[in-house]
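Need residues for this backbone.
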C-alpha cells in the first residue's frame, strides 16, 4: 500500500483507524493537548470553573460552550490570539436534572445566554514543540467574551430599515447578542467574520406574529403553529424580546455575518447586512483580480444555496478605515450549477455518468447591488433580510446543505462542502447533488472564469463523493479506493501550505467517531484521503486550523458526549478530564517538530 510513503502532497502519516473511543486519537508520531475548554477563565477577573456551582456572572468571563470556528492572529512567533465561536448550549449535559427551558431555574437560562457567542484568548507556544497553551497569568489585554447579550451595531443597506426596527430599538441599528455562530472567516485587514447559523431555534411566539410575516418565518425554519417549540431554551423568560408575539422584528436582527476586531476588546462588533440573511455557515474572503473583496458563503439547510458577495470598491492594503466599509456595499450573488451529462445518466446511486465526472458549468446570479434590487417584486432591504426567498425566485440550485467554502492558496480553486441531505429524492437529483438521500455528503471544486473570484461564471466538478470506499456510490477523485480512509459528513475545511485539503466531519454515518482527514488535490495522490485524528465519543470535529508555521493543527472538539439520554449523572463521555464532558479546542503536533501531515 501507499500508506507511510509521502505522495505528491508531502503527506506521509499512517491513517487513524475508525473507532468509537472516548478519546482524542491522533496519528502515530503525533501528540495532542487541550488548549482551552468550556469554563476556563478568559478575562483576568474570571473565577475557576465549578461544574456544580455555575453562575451567569462567571460564565460571561469564562470560555463558552460548544466551540466551533477557530482562527488565529499571530502576535509574534510564539504568541497569538485565538478566536473561537461558541455555537450553542446543551443544557441536558451542562446542568444536573435539566428537563426543559420552561422548568429551568432562570439562572440556568442566563448561563446559557452567557455561554453563547465567542471568545478571544491569548495563547503561547510551549517551548520548541508545536504545543500551544492558554496564557493564564499576567495581563491579558485582548481576552474578551462576546455573548448573547453583548451590544452590536447593524450596518449596510438593510440597517435602519423598517424590517429591523423594534420597540426597544426604533433606529434599527443596535442589537444585543449573536446566536448559533457556527463557522466563519477572517478579513485581509485582520478581523473575524463569524456567522449566525441556526438562530431560528431561539425564539418563541412565532404563532403570534402578524399573518403577513408568517411565510418569512416558515421559510427560515420557525414553526408558526406553536407558541413554544419543543426543546426551546426559553430565553424569553430572561428577555422578552425573544417572544416574537410581542416583538415580531427581533428575529430579523439575527442570521447575519458579524465582524469583530480581536485586537480591540472595546470595539463594538458589527452585523453586516450586505452579505444577506440566512443560516450562515462560514464566510471566506479572497480578492478578485481587480482588488475587490469577495466573500463565499454557504446556507446550511437542506436544499439551500451557495452565495458570494463582491464588494463595489477595491481593497487597499493598509487603509483599514476604507477596507472596513467594503463589507457594506457590493453585489450579493447566488450560485446556479448546470451539469454537462444527460439527466438520465444521473441515476441517484452516485455512479459516475459516461463522461466520467460529475461536472459542468455555473453562473453567479445577482440578487442585489447596494440598495438596488435585481429581484422583481422585492426591495433591496427585502432581498437582504429575506435572502432565501429572493434566491428562490431566480432559479438558483438547491444544494445538499452547503457548509464551509474555502479557496486553495495554491491553485485558487474554491471548494464547497455539502455535508449531507437525507431528503434528496430521485425526482430532484442533479449532477451537482447526484445522490438520493445523500447520507455521507460530497465536495464540489469550483474554478472561477479566468481564476478570478470576481467573475460571474465558473466550471465545477466533484472530486470527493464521501462514504465507505467499498460503496460503489463513492468517488475519491479516481484514487485507488482500497487505499483511502472512510469519510462521512464533511463540514469544515482548511488547507496546508502545500495545498492539501484538510476536512473535518460532523455526524459520521458510518458508526464511528468524527475526525479530521487530509486529501491531496494535485498529482497522483489526488483523492488519497487519510484520517489524521478522531474526536471523542459523541463529538463533532470543528475548526480545523493549521498554524502559519505548519507545525500545529488546532481542532475544536464540539459537543463531546452528546447522545440522546446522556446527563451529568449518566455521561456518555468523560473527556477531557475524566469528569463531565467539556467542549474544548485541542492542538496536535509532530513529536519531532515536523510539518503537520509528515
Ligand atoms: Fe453548525 Fe452547519 O454546522
Ligand atoms: Ca459530467
Ligand atoms: Ca459547521
Ligand atoms: Ca454541521
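Answer:
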Amino acid at each position: 500500500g501507499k500508506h507511510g510513503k509521502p505522495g505528491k502532497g508531502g503527506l506521509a502519516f499512517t491513517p487513524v483507524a475508525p473507532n468509537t473511543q472516548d478519546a482524542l486519537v491522533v496519528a502515530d508520531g503525533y501528540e495532542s493537548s487541550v488548549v482551552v475548554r468550556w469554563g476556563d477563565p478568559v478575562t483576568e477577573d474570571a473565577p475557576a470553573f465549578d461544574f456544580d456551582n455555575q453562575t451567569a456572572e462567571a460564565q460571561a468571563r469564562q470560555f463558552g460552550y460548544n466551540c466551533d470556528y477557530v482562527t488565529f492572529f499571530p502576535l509574534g512567533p510564539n504568541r497569538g490570539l485565538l478566536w473561537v465561536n461558541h455555537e450553542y448550549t446543551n443544557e441536558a449535559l451542562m446542568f444536573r436534572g435539566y428537563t426543559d427551558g420552561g422548568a429551568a431555574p432562570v439562572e440556568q437560562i442566563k448561563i446559557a445566554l452567557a455561554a453563547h457567542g465567542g471568545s478571544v484568548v491569548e495563547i503561547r507556544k510551549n517551548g520548541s514543540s508545536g504545543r500551544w497553551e492558554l496564557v493564564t497569568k499576567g495581563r491579558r489585554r485582548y481576552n474578551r467574551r462576546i455573548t448573547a447579550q453583548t451590544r452590536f451595531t447593524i450596518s449596510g443597506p438593510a440597517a435602519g430599515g423598517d424590517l429591523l426596527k423594534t420597540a426597544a430599538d426604533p433606529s434599527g441599528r443596535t442589537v444585543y447578542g449573536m446566536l448559533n455562530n457556527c463557522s466563519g472567516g477572517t478579513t485581509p485587514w485582520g478581523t473575524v467574520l463569524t456567522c449566525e447559523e441556526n438562530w431560528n431555534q431561539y425564539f418563541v411566539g412565532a404563532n403570534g406574529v402578524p399573518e403577513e410575516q408568517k411565510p418569512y418565518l416558515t421559510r427560515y425554519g420557525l414553526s408558526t403553529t406553536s407558541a413554544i417549540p419543543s426543546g426551546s431554551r426559553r430565553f424569553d423568560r430572561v428577555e422578552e424580546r425573544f417572544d416574537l408575539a410581542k416583538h415580531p422584528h427581533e428575529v430579523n436582527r439575527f442570521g447575519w455575518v458579524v465582524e469583530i476586531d480581536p485586537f480591540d476588546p472595546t470595539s463594538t462588533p458589527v452585523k453586516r447586512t450586505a452579505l444577506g440573511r440566512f443560516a450562515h455557515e462560514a464566510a471566506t474572503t479572497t480578492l478578485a483580480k481587480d482588488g475587490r473583496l469577495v466573500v463565499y458563503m454557504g446556507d446550511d439547510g437542506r436544499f439551500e444555496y451557495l452565495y458570494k458577495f463582491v464588494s463595489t470598491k477595491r481593497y487597499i492594503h493598509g487603509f483599514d478605515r476604507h477596507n472596513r466599509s467594503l463589507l457594506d456595499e457590493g453585489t450579493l450573488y447566488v450560485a446556479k450549477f448546470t451539469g454537462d451529462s444527460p439527466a438520465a445518466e444521473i441515476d441517484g446511486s452516485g455512479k459516475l455518468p459516461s463522461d466520467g465526472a460529475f461536472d459542468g458549468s455555473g453562473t453567479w446570479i445577482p440578487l442585489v447591488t447596494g440598495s438596488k434590487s435585481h429581484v422583481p417584486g422585492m426591495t433591496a432591504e427585502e432581498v437582504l433580510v429575506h435572502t432565501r426567498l429572493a434566491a428562490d425566485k431566480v432559479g438558483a440550485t438547491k444544494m445538499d446543505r452547503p457548509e464551509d467554502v474555502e479557496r486553495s492558496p495554491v491553485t485558487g480553486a474554491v471548494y464547497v462542502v455539502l455535508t449531507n441531505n437525507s431528503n434528496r429524492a430521485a425526482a430532484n437529483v442533479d449532477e451537482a447533488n447526484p445522490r438520493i438521500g445523500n447520507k455521507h455528503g460530497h465536495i464540489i471544486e469550483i474554478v472561477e472564469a479566468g481564476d478570478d473570484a470576481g467573475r460571474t461564471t465558473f466550471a465545477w466538478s466533484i472530486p470527493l463523493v464521501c462514504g465507505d470506499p467499498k460503496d460503489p456510490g463513492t468517488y475519491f477523485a479516481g484514487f485507488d479506493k482500497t487505499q483511502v480512509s472512510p469519510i462521512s459528513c464533511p463540514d469544515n475545511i482548511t488547507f496546508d501550505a502545500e495545498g492539501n485539503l484538510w476536512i473535518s466531519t460532523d455526524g459520521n454515518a458510518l458508526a464511528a467517531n468524527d475526525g479530521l482527514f487530509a486529501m491531496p488535490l494535485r498529482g497522483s495522490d489526488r483523492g488519497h484521503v487519510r484520517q489524521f485524528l478522531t474526536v471523542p465519543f459523541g463529538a463533532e470535529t470543528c475548526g480545523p486550523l493549521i498554524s502559519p508555521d505548519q507545525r500545529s493543527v488546532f481542532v475544536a472538539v464540539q459537543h463531546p458526549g452528546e447522545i440522546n439520554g446522556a446527563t451529568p449523572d449518566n455521561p456518555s463521555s468523560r473527556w477531557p478530564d475524566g469528569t463531565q464532558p467539556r467542549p474544548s479546542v485541542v492542538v496536535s503536533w509532530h513529536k519531532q517538530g515536523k510539518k503537520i501531515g509528515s
